[in-house]
Amino acid sequence: MLRSPNSVSKEKFWLLIGLTIFLHSLLLYRFFQLQILDYDLYKQRANSNRIRATSIPAPRGLIRDRNGKIIVDNYPTYVLFGIPGEIVNKSRNFSVISKATGIDTSYLSINYKNNYRSKFLPAKLAKDLTISQLSRLEENKNDLTGIIYKQYPERIFNPKIRASHVLGYLKETNQEFPSTISNKSDYQFGDLIGWSGLERHYESILRGRKGVSYFQVDAYGREVGSIDGQLNILPTPGNDIITTLDLEIQELLESKLKDKKGAGIVSNPKTGEVLAYVSSPDYPPDLFTGLISTKDWEFVITDIDKPLLDRVANGTYPPGSIYKMIVAIELLERKLVNEEWEVFCPGYYEFYDRTFKCWNEIGHGKVNLKKAITESCDVFFYQAIQKVEIDNLSERSKIFYHGEQTNIDLPSEMKGRVPNYKYMNKKHGKWGWSKGAMLNLSIGQGELLVTPLQIALYTNILATRSETFPLHLVKNEYKKINRIKIRNSTWELIEKSMRNVVSGSKGTGRRADPKIKGLIISGKTGTAQNPHGEPHAWFIGYGTKSNDSISIVIMLENGGHGGEVAAPIARSIFSKYFETDFKIAKK
Amino acid sequence: MFIEIWQKIKSSPIIILIPVIFLVSLGMLSLYSIVMVQEQAPPNAFSKQSFFLIPSFIMLVTMTILSKRLIHKYIYVFYVLVIFAVLLPFFGDKVSGTYRWINFGLPFDLQPSEISKWIIVLVLARYLSDNNLKMNHFNSNIFPFIIALVPTIIVLNQPDLGTAFVMMAPIIPMLYWVGARPFHLFLLVAPLLSIISAFNVAVFYFWAFSLALIIYASKPKLVHGIGLYFSNIFLGLIFPLVWNSLRPYQQNRVLTFINPEIDPLGAGYHIIQSKTALGSGGLFGKGWGQGTQTHLKFLPVQESDFIVSAIGEEFGFIVLFLMISLFLWFIFKILRLALNASDRFSGLTLIGLSSIFMAHIFVNSAMASGLMPVKGLPLPFISYGGSFLVSSFMMLGLILNFGREDVY
User: A527 and A449 in one domain?
Assistant: First the structure.
């Protein structure tokens, strides 16, 4: 019936009113909570929703040679990224990319998987894209939601030289960092970091500071313009470094050591500046930039000639006869022998029941110290060493940086080995070795191991009576090395002997002399026996002409006789450096 | 005759139109911002909504002047028609995975379940006012409940969880209005609570304990008490089986409500983005047309389900406060009219209609602010949606009509 009475108690009415107020208040409180109490949180969340900040990589500083010529430069390449959370259809996107650029979809998928970090961080898909590949991608931009690209400066190298072990390479950071890096938080996943060589040692100078670019994106991750009042932070490029290397000397030395195994260092004995630094075989310096294929990598890794090994600083070899100057200095300084002391060399020496051969089987006849160095007579040293205490010799060697780090401005360097009494006992047992081991040591054989780098510093010390600076590759302030206290007469004898090695009619290093007027060259050859086959060939030497001098160390692994194979290489360097044209170019 | 109509309109409580005009304006302002900033060409949400204001106004006047006697007389017939109407979409094509809309060849689709909401209210009002039921008996509640349940179950299968919820919303307040015992009403709701509490073991224990207390306090017959208790517990226990029969998207909605962070780009994404839009608006908002979350399309279904967030982002808490106040005024007004209605049919109808509005307001805002699971329910007078706008104005017409001091 339409007219049934509407008799309702006020209580019911107020209860419904109360319920209504309660529900509306609940809503209001919720709005208050979100918009007033949690405003900052949601404001920030809203901005991170729409603002995409990407870093702009800073161009690394250039690496130049001593004359300012560029050795390592930058050029722009493009890197493709995918933002996982914004990619709508991954397989479709990849096939579009593949069609436009010719990059295999499986390659993209693998990179995507490996570089995936989180839903909203870009994962690297491919690098080294060319402009034309990029423009084809641009045409398909509407099909490529969540795919972005960035420009990256990449390293490009002077084609004349390789110097791969000196320059080093860059690597993308992940969790690993070189121990030299202190500010790890400055690096993001995928940033390039100097991983070896100068790139690593001078990382903080070369690197520069990354910039940030901000832009607004919509819910589909598409760029929709820049953000008002939010300026991009421009990257600060890294600083250039000027090395002490000389492009032309380096080039020449590389060509001389090509297809050989070995090491070569050319330096200025007065300043310690390294003009050329070659370890052979090497690898193309751009091997680690761009897309290194697994095949190339396998090839480099498994090559038995170990092209990745820096033989200059990290290869250790017996020094052979180039060690004899240290023995001679020990003999003279402790007055164990004098200049006149002679032995007779029949080409061999019998020590108890063992026969030690001289390298010259017909013998040197009567030999004094000077002749022993000039003609590299072993028998002289076999006999003289018996007057020497092993620990004294060991200490003397260390003063000349044998078994000591040279502290060159490179990230890694081997120490080598100089045996002493303790070491010999430990290795052979107290009664397991005798003076016989000393005989080997006297000609730089046996337990003794050095790096070519140590020998370079040793050569500079001999060239300057220890008035030299540490070896270095980048110009800077350096402190002179500790002066070695030796009598002048000793220095003179050593110098005279070494000059005779090159200029004497019977000197073993005659082939190192380019015979340039006014150029005086001193040196020493070495032929180090070793269990791996042919002996290692050494030549060390320094040449001076009108107050300008360079020192050279050449070591050829299993190369044969130092005087025959190493000295001629030194000659070509001396010849190049001291020729008139080059002098002009140098200034 | 026109004078008679004018008299009718004049004697209607037209003051209730004031909050409605403000609310409609706010909605249009927000829709305009969305279509203009995002450069949507007409027909867009704004132009369509403007167009639908015309039939809305016509239906408002029609429902205002329609004879209450006629409505009362034929409402049962309409009830049967409405049941057919909500069944109709099942014979048409699926639209975005549901059978909610019917296409009559018009440029827009119709959603018959919108009309069914208030038809149910009228049917219940007539049934409860025609029969002088002994409301303190529990059994008297059962038939009204079934009246609402039949179309609801059909709508639930369309599937449209939100509308189904709204359709059931008026029944409790209406039964209460007509004199049902709160304990009985509690028993009607109890099964639902049993089901919901079955989500969590601890909550279910708590519920089982409270249920026992309430039944004990109400002192029913021992057999009834035990029966009620255990049937509820049983329902809760078999719920996992029922759960499996739900559609995956319904399951997902419930699940993401429990933890929206599970899948930021899935269903929980809606809630997160909506909260972000709302919260980032702050006290005064970002300004008209300046809502970054809205216009960069981070905010989903921004014209209808999440329009509150769009308003909150651009106009801030101040305007949301005003909006809620307007709604509160609107509901107060209807309840006041219900209290003062001369007959029970009118009073009950007004209570039912206010419940429908209340359910829409609460569910929509609670959902947009992350208080409730995502259910597709629009905000009255504000959200974009033709069928719902027309339906809301028809309800408004009924309110004007039934709130009138009739002179017979």
Answer: yes
Query: Is B279 in Cβ contact with A35 (below 8 Å)?
Result: yes
Among candidate residues A220, A242, A264, the one where a domain is terminated: A242
Condensed to tens digits (0 to 9), the pLDDT of residues B124-176 reads 999 998 887 777 777 788 888 899 989 888 887 777 777 888 898 999 999 88
Q: Are residues A425 and A563 in the same domain?
A: yes
Show contacts of B207-213: CB within 8 Å, 24+ apart: B207/B236, B208/B233, B208/B236
**Tens of pLDDT, residues B226-250:** 888 888 888 877 776 777 777 777 7
| A226 shares a domain with A295 | no
Q: Does any domain span residue A309? A: yes
Q: Mind listing the pLDDT tens digit for each residue in B4-17?
A: 888 888 888 889 99
Please enumerate in sequence order all residues whose Cβ is within 8 A of that of A405, keeping only pairs 6 or more positions apart, or say none. Answer: A413, A415
Choosing from A221, A242, A263, the residue where a domain stops is A242
Our count of domains for chain A comes to 2
Q: Give the pLDDT band of residue A234 (cuts 50, 70, 90).
A: confident
**A409 vs B371, higher pLDDT:** A409
From chain A, the residues in CB contact with B321 under 8 A are 28, 31
pTM more than 0.80: no
Beta carbons within 8 Å of A175's beta carbon, 6+ residues apart: none
Instruction: Tell me if A268 is assigned to some domain.
Output: no
Q: How much is the ipTM here?
A: 0.87
Q: Are B380 and B361 in contact, with CB atoms under 8 Å apart?
A: yes
Residues of chain B in contact with residue A43, where contact means CB-CB under 8 angstroms, are 279-280, 282
The answer as to whether A258 is a domain residue is: no
Residue A547, classed as helix, strand or coil, is coil
Nearest CA-CA distance, residue A87 and chain B, Å: 11
Residue B366 forms contact with A (CB below 8 Å): yes
Residue A542 and residue A451 share a domain: yes
Domain that residue A561 falls in: 279-586
pLDDT tens digits, A123-170:
888 878 878 888 888 888 888 888 888 887 888 899 999 999 999 988
Contact (CB, 8 A) for A428 and A394 = no
Is A43 close to B282, i.e. CB distance below 8 A? yes
CB A61 within 8 A of CB A239: yes
Cα A411 versus chain centre, distance = 6
Q: Are the Cβ atoms of B177 and A49 closer than 8 angstroms?
A: no
Q: Does B351 touch chain A (CB under 8 A)?
A: yes
A362 in contact with B, Cβ within 8 Å: no
Q: Using 50, 70 and 90 to split pLDDT, how confident is the model at B265?
A: very low
Subunit contact B366:A30, Cβ cutoff 8 A: yes
A312 pLDDT band, cuts 50/70/90, is very high
Residue A29, chain B, CB below 8 Å: the answer is no
Is some CB atom of chain B closer than 8 A to the CB atom of A42? Answer: yes
Distance from CA of B189 to the nearest CA of A (A): 17
Q: What residues in A contact B180, CB-CB < 8 Å?
A: none
To test the contact with chain A by mutation, choose from B76, B269, B296 the residue with the greatest count of A C-beta atoms within 10 A, namely: B296
Per-residue model confidence (pLDDT) at position A294: 66
Closest CA to A313 of A284, A344, A279: A279
Reported as a pLDDT band with limits 50, 70 and 90, residue A119 is low
Question: Around Cβ A294, how many Cβ atoms within 10 Å?
Answer: 7
Alpha-carbon distance A303 to A299, whole Å? 6
- Whether B317 and A35 lie within 8 Å, measured CB to CB: yes
Domain locations along chain B: 2-402
Question: Are the beta carbons of B129 and A26 separated by less than 8 Å?
Answer: no
CATH number for the domain including A233?
Answer: 3.90.1310.10
> Among the listed ranges A19-28, A37-46, A573-582, B85-94, which one has the minimum average pLDDT value?
B85-94
Q: Is A31 on the interface with B (CB under 8 A)?
A: yes
Helices (H), A119-201: 131-139, 164-167, 197-201
Q: Is residue A253 part of a domain?
A: no
Residue B188 clears pLDDT 60, i.e. is over it: yes
